[in-house]
Write a structure and sequence with these properties.
Number of strands: 12
Strand order of the largest sheet: 2-1-5-4-3
Bound molecules: adenosine-5'-diphosphate
Helix content: 40-55%
Amino acid sequence: MFQALRRKFMLVNMLLIFIILSAALLGFYFITWLSSEQSATRLISTYMSMPLGEIHSSSDTPHLFISEIDVATYDYIQPLIDSNIFKYFKTSYAHDSFSSSQTNNILSEVVAKDDIAARIKVDDRYYKYQKQKINGERIKIVVLDVTTAIQHLRSTAFTLVAIALVSLIFVYFVSKLITELSVKPIEEMFERQGEFFSDISHELRTPLTAAITNLAVIEANKTETVQSQEKWVGFLKDQLDRLVNLVNEMLYLEDIGSGIHNETNERINFSELVEQQIKGLSAYINEKGLGLSVCIQKEVYYHGELEALTRLVSVLVDNAIKYTPEGGSISLNLAKADRRVYLTVENSGEGIEPEDLERVFDRFYRVRKSRSRNEGGQGLGLAIAKSVVEKYGGTIRITSTVGANTIFSVELPI
Ligand code: ADP
């Protein structure tokens, strides 16, 4: 599927880049052609207004000559254009490169043409001419040799075509790069989505299978009282609680991520909130024999939603306790500075490998799946914490040293 997408993407990219490049090259050619045409027309007009006597031939003037003839003679020579008509014209050369036979051939072509201005080809050379009636008596003809300009235009065209062809190779590699850069994130997103579906199926299947097993045991002892089967009923309830909890967490995550979550904005005493969370978990901390160091700045207020901020703090504190081995230590800091609230939760322990660091914020991602599940984790805590932080335009970062500690740093703009 991605191979086909890559091919299409690349084709569209190549076409687009090639069209833009061709348009630029064509534009360049058109401008060159236009300026050459304009300078030829300007030159012809300048010489058209000059009296014949003022024109002197030299080697650095334009390749041009001017001929004059009276109207009656012009009409007379019309049928004679194949013969020597040069002698009927009065001609002045601005450049000494024209021979009389060449001039004769050019004039024959000009006389044969009805257009008052055109481009002609005579003896393998190109000329631009203009003929004009002067005072109704004479006809003045200015002929400019444009062979060099045309050759120049042709070599420009060849160069541009060569550039276009060579640039095809360049376009190919650029398109390949753009395609890779564009398709890769989509591919990764699909991969993650696939993982997500497999993870969620697994998360749902585990408690469901356990619940069905418990039900089967209860069913096998139909005649027993509920009280005597309390153990199995309790297990069943635990599994169902786990399922409900999982669904609730997912719904919460979805709501907060899509921005449709309750938008209440109350003034919350963040210092108290953090203290309450620690107090609520002190029994757990003592049970594990963890050392606790807390530094909470008093009266840190934050405008936000109480439930969201409580979840953020509880996920971080809860994880710190959960993933610190017995006898380990936890330290927690809360401070306000420069219109920002800084919350840091650090715990000792085995730490997290660098390749897992960014992924711990993904839904259902757990560094050690079985261990985390035993601890009651569903792999959604940090995803929820990240969504809450992002909801308030803040950042959450993780740093960890394997075999030493893990630090979560939250920064929330006020
Ligand atoms: P869980 O419900 O599994 O705790 P989380 O999203 O909260 O899910 O955390 C994801 C994973 O990140 C955990 O499974 C754990 O491996 C790792 N983790 C989270 N917090 C810590 C911590 N304080 N110390 C070490 N590892 C942690």
